């Protein structure tokens, strides 16, 4: 009991001593003077903080310790403008019983840093996001090589963003804060390090660029180093040349060193003495014994290029088991504990010596030789895109899936864009290395490899305004023997082209290794060899894994991981040229397989269409609580995404797409164009034709003359009410009525070949041409719904004193589109309106005797305007009115009056009352329309002349022409025709 009491008293004394060193006390009570701001005026004890300020790239940076997280082994708050990051480090107590360094780096971005509450159900942050894992890797990679050999104690680094102004990416700040925290701690570590970000805008390098500057930059370079050696490189670029990249690296090194001196000064003020930790080192006795037993046999395995990956691994495992049996017979327990580490050290020594001295590799290749390549695009034809890529024993299957813009990934990062429309997901299943494993959640290695390949391919994707779809590339590693991430880049590039995505060119990647020979006295590099396209074992036994991806023009992504405590920058830059040569070899083979995006025009491939509507139309389509949208998705299996004025449809195949379009047409209708074919239903039958409801409730007249290529006596012989028909829009009359044709969709009796009309499309011929010319053209490419003024070719023809008014009304009401796909609202003349007009005309005719402009008296007992015998020009096509089928009156009185008027036509100005049928006049062209002319007849009177087929149409305003009055339309406007040469 007494010993326990003394131990407690001793611990309390040590604690008071520690607190006295960390705190300062003051009895200063002068309210007007406080010489030390860290000491309270009332005598309270306050924490003492230490601070360093410096400037890098015109940015003011601060390092502060002692105020926050004082119980951590080391803690530092690094600030740049409004962004502050806290980094803490701790180490586990006790001896280590392992043969590796259990270093854990966690990076956190909580929403409070930008003044927001999480949108999750629990209003808390959940599992680490991809970005947090990637930032953790950025911190981990440069600090791991600097721990001393044999230091296997557990170390944890926690980096948290305390506040963010959105201008700076906190990842680089967190790495520098972690380096400073390790310097302050008692953990043995070979730092400090400096990390800096470099951008480039208009060929000008920028140190510590802001997020806005990065969006304009063609380079995002993260560089970490010690005073004289490179530790880590991470690059995303837009095809930057190797020469420019080297210039950026040489600029980054001196800028990164500027972080080192302030950390040393801070550690001198507030740092702890480094603690003596037990290091797990291999004894000379154990190494000598294992070397004698295994070295020669290991050399025999490594000098035989016929061994494959698993055959070589099995042979090496047999050697290890043989050595284990010998050690067990000798009873050498100490060597048995470290046997795997000792055998691995012997393997590394044998391989490295052979490569440096003989320049010969494990599989017999030369140093700059790429393994045999095999690639195949379109291996899974039912998918949007797919490709299989083999390099040696490494095999990767890549697939591409296209989605709507709303399928983009939503990011919750405190900096950067809110969504991501291009995603590459990398998967490393256990079977690819013949192992049994458990599939879990996000894996740091998988996320890192996938992001590297994603950066590489992002540089060649078309811009969002050209290709707005969301793209997901999925990479499944089928077999792994080195650099599966670079194989993912190659396979992903081919899969994108197989999907028909208009990427500019192929992207390929290759991994470069390095084997160095060190001076045992000072540890300096005395010799080295650069290896192109390294194997998995060469990666494990070598010094670096330098992954470089790019196109023929330049580099798009880089990731450099270094195992020793740094590599000189000159050697790193020297690796760029072998990587470029190896990349060109791979690009040559990829281009032999597929060198341009495919045309996806088969009916079985998935389809994507983007349709443009007004927002009001989209609201009608979605329906209350999105009921209509869900109904379409459930019935067809397609996916609909609604944006601002756009509707994106993703369908499994062409037939599903057609069904979706048909359902949408029924709900909201489509924009009508001359030549478009539409499905409709007969709603009413008249003696002169039928009214068809189509395109979401719009109506058009199917005239009796447009029912068949053969004469039709009665409409009911061909159509019945409720019958479903496919009709073509052939025009629009001056009233805004839509004219439809059934015979235009039927094969002509005199032709053996018919035109294949795609129902629901604007024009099938246009669509097929687009499918040949474009890549992944939407099934129905509908232009913007913004109202646009009609051009001269789009205006309906109006004649006489009401011409300008008719044109204005047509512009206001809209009309059938002739060429443009702009949205219009048509003035539809319904069946009820036609019936009402017929009824009123009949009442007017029965109430009194009526005389039309031709002077012919009508029968009082006539019940329809068809009996009026009103003359209409045979070439005139004035739309849905019964006048079109009326016959010309041939009365002697009429001929005589026409002759008299014709004789006087050239001597005096023609008046509205004096113009009769058959009157010949000399008129001037007043206006030119798409289908005819407005003629000035003199005396303020104007008439209408319609172009005939194969007739002259190259008129100019002011031209004179000899015309004769051939008929009058329903408004009394004269319809004229050319006078034939007498």
From TrEMBL:
Recorded catalytic activity of this chain's protein: RNA(n+1) + phosphate = RNA(n) + a ribonucleoside 5'-diphosphate
Keyword tags: Exonuclease, Hydrolase, Nuclease, Nucleotidyltransferase, Repeat, RNA-binding, rRNA processing, Transferase, tRNA processing
Molecular function (Gene Ontology), one example: 3'-5'-RNA exonuclease activity
Keyword field contains Thylakoid: no
Source organism, top-level taxon: Eukaryota
Any one GO cellular component localisation term in the record: chloroplast stroma
Pfam families reported in the protein's UniProt record: PNPase, RNase_PH, RNase_PH_C, S1
Top-level EC class: transferase
NCBIfam families named among the record's database cross-references: polynuc_phos (TIGR03591), PRK11824.1 (NF008805)
Stated name of the protein: Polyribonucleotide nucleotidyltransferase 2, mitochondrial
Annotated organism of origin: Crotalaria pallida
């Amino acid at each position: 009991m007494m010993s326990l009491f003394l131990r407690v008293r001793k611990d309390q004394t040590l604690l008071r001593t520690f607190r006295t060193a960390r705190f300062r006390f003051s009895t200063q009570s002068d309210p007007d003077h406080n010489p030390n701001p860290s000491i309270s005026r009332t005598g309270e004890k306050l924490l003492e903080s230490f601070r360093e300020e410096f400037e890098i790239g015109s940015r003011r940076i601060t390092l502060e310790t002692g105020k926050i997280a004082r119980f951590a082994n080391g803690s530092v708050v690094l600030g740049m403008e409004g962004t502050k990051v806290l980094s803490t480090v701790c180490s586990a107590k006790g001896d280590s019983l392992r043969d590796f360094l259990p270093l854990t780096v966690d990076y956190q971005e909580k929403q409070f840093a930008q003044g927001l509450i999480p949108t999750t159900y629990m209003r808390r942050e959940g599992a680490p996001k991809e970005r947090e894992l990637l930032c953790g890797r950025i911190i981990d990679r440069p600090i791991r090589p600097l721990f001393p050999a044999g230091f296997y104690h557990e170390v944890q680094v926690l980096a948290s963003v305390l506040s963010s102004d959105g201008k700076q990416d906190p990842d680089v700040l967190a790495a520098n804060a972690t380096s400073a925290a390790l310097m302050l701690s008692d953990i043995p570590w070979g730092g400090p390090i400096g990390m800096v970000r470099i951008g480039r805008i208009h060929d000008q390098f920028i140190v510590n660029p802001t997020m806005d500057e990065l969006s304009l930059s063609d380079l995002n370079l993260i560089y970490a180093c010690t005073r004289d050696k490179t530790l880590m490189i991470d690059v995303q670029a837009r095809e930057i040349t190797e020469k420019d990249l080297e210039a950026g690296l040489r600029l980054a090194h001196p800028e990164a060193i500027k972080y080192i001196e302030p950390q040393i000064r801070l550690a001198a003020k507030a740092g702890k003495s480094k603690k003596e930790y037990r290091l797990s080192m291999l004894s000379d006795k154990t190494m000598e014994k294992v070397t004698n037993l295994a070295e020669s046999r290991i050399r025999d395995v490594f000098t035989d290029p016929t061994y494959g990956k698993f055959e070589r691994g099995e042979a090496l495992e047999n050697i290890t088991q043989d050595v284990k049996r010998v050690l067990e017979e000798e009873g050498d327990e100490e060597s048995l504990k470290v046997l795997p580490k000792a055998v691995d050290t012997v393997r590394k020594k044998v391989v490295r010596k052979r490569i440096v001295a003989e320049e010969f590799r494990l599989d017999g290749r030369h140093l700059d030789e790429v393994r045999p390549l095999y690639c195949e695009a379109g291996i899974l034809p039912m998918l949007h895109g797919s490709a299989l890529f083999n390099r040696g024993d490494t095999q990767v299957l890549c697939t591409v899936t296209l989605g709507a813009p709303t399928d983009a990934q939503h990011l919750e990062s405190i900096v950067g864009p809110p969504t991501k429309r291009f995603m590459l997901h990398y998967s490393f299943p256990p079977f690819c290395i013949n192992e049994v494993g458990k599939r879990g959640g996000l894996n740091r290695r998988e996320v890192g490899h996938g992001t590297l390949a994603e950066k590489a391919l992002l540089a060649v994707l078309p811009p969002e305004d050209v290709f707005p779809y969301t793209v997901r590339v999925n990479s499944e590693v089928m077999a792994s023997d080195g650099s599966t991430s670079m194989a993912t880049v190659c396979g992903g590039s081919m899969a994108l082209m197989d999907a028909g995505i208009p990427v500019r060119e192929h992207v390929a990647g290759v991994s470069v290794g390095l084997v160095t020979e060190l001076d045992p006295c000072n540890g300096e590099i005395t010799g080295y060899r650069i290896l192109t396209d390294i194997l998995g074992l060469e990666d494990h036994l070598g010094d670096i894994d330098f992954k470089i991806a790019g196109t023929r023009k330049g580099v798009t992504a880089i990731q450099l991981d270094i195992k020793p405590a740094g590599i000189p920058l000159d050697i790193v830059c020297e690796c760029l040229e072998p990587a470029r040569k190896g990349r060109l070899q791979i690009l040559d083979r990829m281009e032999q397989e597929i060198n341009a995006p495919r045309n996806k025009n088969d009916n079985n491939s998935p389809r994507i269409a983007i349709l443009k509507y007004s927002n009001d139309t989209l609201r009608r389509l979605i329906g209350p609580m999105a009921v209509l949208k869900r109904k379409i998705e459930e019935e067809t299996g397609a996916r609909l995404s609604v944006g601002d004025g756009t509707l994106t449809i993703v369908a499994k195949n062409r037939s599903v797409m057609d069904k979706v379009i048909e359902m949408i047409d029924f709900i909201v209708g489509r924009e009508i164009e001359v030549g478009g074919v539409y499905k409709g239903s007969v709603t009413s039958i008249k003696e002169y034709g039928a009214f068809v409801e189509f395109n979401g409730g719009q109506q058009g007249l199917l005239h009796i003359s447009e029912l068949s290529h053969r004469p039709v006596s009665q409409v009911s012989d061909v159509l019945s009410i409720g019958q479903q028909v496919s009709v073509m829009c052939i025009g629009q009359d001056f009233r805004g009525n839509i004219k439809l044709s059934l015979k235009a969709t039927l094969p002509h009796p005199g032709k053996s070949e018919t035109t294949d009309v795609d129902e629901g499309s604007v024009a099938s011929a246009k669509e097929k041409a687009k499918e040949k010319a474009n890549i992944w053209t939407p099934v129905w490419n509908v232009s913007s719904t913004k109202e646009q003024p009609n051009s001269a070719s789009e205006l309906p023809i109006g004649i006489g004193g009401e011409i300008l008014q008719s044109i204005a009304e047509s512009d206001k009401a809209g009309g059938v589109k002739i060429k443009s796909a702009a949205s219009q609202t048509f003035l539809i003349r319904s069946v009820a309106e036609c019936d009402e007009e017929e009824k009123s005309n009949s009442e007017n005719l029965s109430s009194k005797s009526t005389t039309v402009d031709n002077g012919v008296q009508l029968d009082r007992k006539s019940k329809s305007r068809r009996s009026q015998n009103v003359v209409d020009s045979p070439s005139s096509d004035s739309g849905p009115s019964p006048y079109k089928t009326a016959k010309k009156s041939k009365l002697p009185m009429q001929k005589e009056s026409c002759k008299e008027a014709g004789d006087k036509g050239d001597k005096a100005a023609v008046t509205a009352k004096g113009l009769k049928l058959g009157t010949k006049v000399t008129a001037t062209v007043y206006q030119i329309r798409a289908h005819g002319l407005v003629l000035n007849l003199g005396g303020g009177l104007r008439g209408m002349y319609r172009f005939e087929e194969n007739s002259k149409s190259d008129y100019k305003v002011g031209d004179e022409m000899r015309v004769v009055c051939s008929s009058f339309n329903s408004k009394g406007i004269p319809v004229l025709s050319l006078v034939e040469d007498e």
